[in-house]
Request: fold
Amino acid sequence: MIKTFGSSPRPVGATLVIRSDGLLVGSVSGGCIEDDLVNKACAGGLSTDAAKLMTYGVTTEEARQFSLLGG
Reply:
């Protein structure tokens, strides 16, 4: 993770590695973001030959979709 805002469950520098069968090592959110990334990886939606920057929760709609809004 390179940047966070608000109440982030993981600090800057958190990493996640996803194997093609969905096995995870590490964490970047503690839940819903990992689920989305695993789904994308297993569907072939993530490149395996280079790192990829993903952005989550920037808009209110995304924050709601991924349960990133505080109580």
